[in-house]
Amino acid sequence: MQPPITDPAVLAGYLTDASNVPGRADALFRPRSAEEVAEVLAAATAQGVPVTVTARRTSTTAAAVPRGGWLLSTERLCTVHALDDADAGVLLGEYQAQVAAAGRLFPPDPTSRHDCSLGGAIACNASGARSFRYGPTRPWVRAVDVVLPDGRILHADRDTPIPADWPLPAWTEPGVKTAAGYFPADNLLDLMIGQEGTLGVITRAWLRLTDAPAGVLSLIAFFDDADALRAFVRRARDGARRPGRLARPGALDPAAIEYYGPHALDMVRARVPDVPAAAIGALFIEIEHDGEPPLDRWWDALVDGGALADDTVVAEDERGRERLLAVRHAIPAGVNERVVHNGMPKVGTDFAVPDDALAPMMAAYDAVDMDKICFGHIGDNHLHLNLLPRTADELARAKAIYRQLALQAVALGGTVSAEHGIGKLKRALLADMVGPDALAGFQALKRHLDPGFVLGRGNILAGPVDDAAPNY
Ligand SMILES: Cc1cc2nc3c(=O)[nH]c(=O)nc-3n(C[C@H](O)[C@H](O)[C@H](O)COP(=O)(O)OP(=O)(O)OC[C@H]3O[C@@H](n4cnc5c(N)ncnc54)[C@H](O)[C@@H]3O)c2cc1C
């Protein structure tokens, strides 16, 4: 086993993630192979030392924050072996660029793709705007090498059975986009996707690619009426290609439908001139095509659907797309500025609900009386409501509101996390969502594979000793 790094100055760079929750660790390992990962995990298990896998630390749920013990960084597992075969530590955006240069597409597109790792995206089953059409990371992974907490190295694909003596939780996921809890898997690969660094360390992955579309038409359509906007979303997704389903002939068939609420538009207005004064909401839509952008069809649909059609901003080429992306990026940039100005963290939801629950969920978001910005993946009924507290009292109130909204999402048949995962901050919400039996099932599986709760301690489940209290 390589000697660990214990220099506090080096460790300091690994102690938090995008959640800003502070962590602590005694040592850092940066293995270069699955065998070296196995040595670290076997030693940790033998000594009962917690190990936190850390990749690019873009987790928003403190999943990569260590609560003592050792850190295992995947940064040196960084080789792209072939177009469809890469190490876990490779930057997702760089990998996708290599794939794109060959005219192919690896669809998972979390907003953080230029900052996060491939292994992190697999471990969290990350999603993005294109998940509407292509699904999350899961279906795009064909196989992984994974190291179990006891140091065993396994190769897992969808034909690899889960060993018969592993106790599997019996539960059903809500029928929405979700990244909460262990996947009810019938093969070892699917169990290892979305486990947030608690069941094994993914060292290498074999990916599924598809052909890149010949062209992408992007547009931002503005609405002055929320009901018309939602009706247009229903129309746009009617018959669209979705994961596991082909498009119905004649359907509008967008690849992504993103939403910007009124406060998000105000933020955009401050930065770009294209937002009409009457707009109370907007849809950012991407349409893949075979070289002939279907502009007329979309124009007719927008006019018919009550959009402020003359104000629609359309991009048919890369330059135009960049202009549109500037509008999109204005929102997270504006949120971050507000957070810095307030000196308080934002409290951001990640709930998704079934189609027929979108309107009541949006009504609940609208009713929240606090500085807020709502935007996100409306095609999947998955919006991020960002509460922006200005004082400690408001922060406490924001967390209480968040919990109430989570319960409402669950009551409507939704999930408490559609893409960011549970990590350490949302364990109480997961318990609310899955109930005690499923939770006991998750615990039994974890205990079987990792009796000392050594790996990813505090993520998804409370460990035997865990001082990281859930935040919500
Ligand atoms: C600005 C911003 C935008 C984001 N947008 C999105 C989005 O659109 N969609 C989305 O889904 N998420 C999003 N995220 C969340 C986050 O980027 C993703 O979950 C990402 O996949 C995490 O990758 P990472 O390399 O940073 O992992 P880390 O943050 O380092 O780790 C995340 C978790 O995965 C585990 N892990 C990492 N690598 C491995 C491995 N090889 N084997 C086992 N476990 C491992 C860690 O232990 C930890 O539990 C966003 C985050 C930020 C800050």
Structure description:
It is a single chain. With 472 residues, the chain is α+β, with helices and mostly antiparallel strands. The chain has 3 domains: 8-210, Uridine Diphospho-n-acetylenolpyruvylglucosamine Reductase, domain 3, CATH 3.30.465.10; 213-328, Alpha-Beta Plaits; 343-421, Alpha-Beta Plaits, CATH 3.30.70. Helices cover 32% and strands 17% of the residues. It is built from 13 helices and 17 strands. It has helices at 8-11, 34-47, 92-101, 118-123, 131-134, 188-192, 226-237, 262-269, 295-304, 318-342, 358-367, 392-411, 427-449; strands spanning 27-29, 51-54, 70-73, 80-82, 85-87, 104-105, 141-147, 153-157, 201-207, 210-211, 215-223, 256-260, 281-289, 313-315, 347-348, 372-377, 382-387. The strands form 4 sheets. It has a 7-stranded antiparallel sheet, with helices on both faces. It has a 5-stranded antiparallel sheet with strand order 4-5-9-7-8. It binds flavin-adenine dinucleotide.
List the helices and strands and how they pair.
Blueprint: H1 8-11, E1 27-29, H2 34-47, E2 51-54, E3 70-73, E4 80-82, E5 85-87, H3 92-101, E6 104-105, H4 118-123, H5 131-134, E7 141-147, E8 153-157, H6 188-192, E9 201-207, E10 210-211, E11 215-223, H7 226-237, E12 256-260, H8 262-269, E13 281-289, H9 295-304, E14 313-315, H10 318-342, E15 347-348, H11 358-367, E16 372-377, E17 382-387, H12 392-411, H13 427-449
Parallel strand pairs: 1-3, 2-3
Antiparallel strand pairs: 4-5, 5-9, 6-10, 7-8, 7-9, 11-13, 11-14, 12-13, 12-16, 15-17, 16-17
Helix pairs in contact: 8-10
The structure holds flavin-adenine dinucleotide (FAD).
Flavin-adenine dinucleotide binds at residues 17-18, 52-60, 63-64, 74, 88, 110-112, 116-117, 119-121, 123-124, 126-128, 196-197, 201-202, 419-420, 456, 459.
